[in-house]
C-alpha cells in the first residue's frame, strides 16, 4: 500500500512546477517504502533511497532558485527547513550504505510527516511571490 497520496486539497501549492515535482517525489517515496517494507533486496532499497534523496535535493534547489529570483522574504526560513531534512537524509544514506541502518516503517513515516507539515505550511506560502 502507498505511503502517501498527492491530492490538491492536502498538498496543492498553486505553483505548477512544485506540484509536479511533489507528485514525482511522492512516487519515489512510495517506491522506496514499498521495497523496504516488502522485503526487497537491500541493493534495490539502496538504489531507491539514493534516487529519492537525489530527487529531493534537486527539488529543493529548484524551489530555492525560484524563491531567490523573486526575493521572497520567507526564503531563509524555508531554506533552513530544507537543510534540516537534507541533513537527516544524508545521515541515513551514509549509515544505510555502511550497513548500520535500514529503511524502516518509521523512516517512511518520518519523511511523510515532514512532507505533511512542510508542503501545506511552508511551501504553500511562496505561491504569491512565485506567481507574481
Ligand atoms: Fe517542496 Fe520546500 O519543498
In brief:
This protein is mainly α and 132 residues long. It is 74% helix and 0% strand. The radius of gyration is 15 Å and the shape is globular.
Plain-language structure description:
With 132 residues, the chain is mostly helical. It is built from 6 helices and no strands. It has helices at residues 8-11, 16-37, 42-69, 75-97, 105-121, 127-130. The longest helix is centred in the middle third of the chain and has 28 residues, at 42-69. The model has no long low-confidence stretch (mean pLDDT 97). Bound molecules: MU-OXO-diiron. MU-OXO-diiron (FEO) binds at residues 18, 22, 59-60, 63, 78, 82, 118-119, 122-123.
SSE diagram, text form:
Blueprint: H1 8-11, H2 16-37, H3 42-69, H4 75-97, H5 105-121, H6 127-130
The structure holds MU-OXO-diiron.
Distance between the termini: 39 Å
Order of helices and strands: HHHHHH
Count the DSSP helices. 6
Quickly count the domains.
1
Q: What are the distinct ligands in this entry?
A: MU-OXO-diiron
CATH class category = Mainly Alpha
- Biggest beta sheet summary: none
Amino acid at each position: 500500500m502507498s505511503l502517501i497520496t498527492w491530492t490538491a486539497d492536502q498538498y496543492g501549492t498553486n505553483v505548477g512546477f512544485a506540484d509536479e515535482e511533489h507528485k514525482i517525489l511522492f512516487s519515489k517515496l512510495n517506491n522506496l517504502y514499498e521495497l523496504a517494507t516488502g522485503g526487497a533486496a537491500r541493493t534495490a532499497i539502496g538504489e531507491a533511497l539514493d534516487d529519492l534523496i537525489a530527487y529531493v535535493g534537486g527539488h529543493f534547489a529548484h524551489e530555492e532558485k525560484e524563491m531567490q529570483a523573486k526575493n521572497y522574504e520567507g526564503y531563509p526560513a524555508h531554506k533552513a527547513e530544507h537543510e534540516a531534512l537534507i541533513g537527516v537524509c544524508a545521515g541515513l544514506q551514509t549509515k544505510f550504505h555502511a550497513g548500520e541502518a535500514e529503511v524502516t516503517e518509521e523512516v517512511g513515516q518520518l519523511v511523510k510527516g515532514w512532507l505533511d507539515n512542510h508542503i501545506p505550511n511552508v511551501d504553500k506560502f511562496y505561491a504569491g511571490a512565485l506567481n507574481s
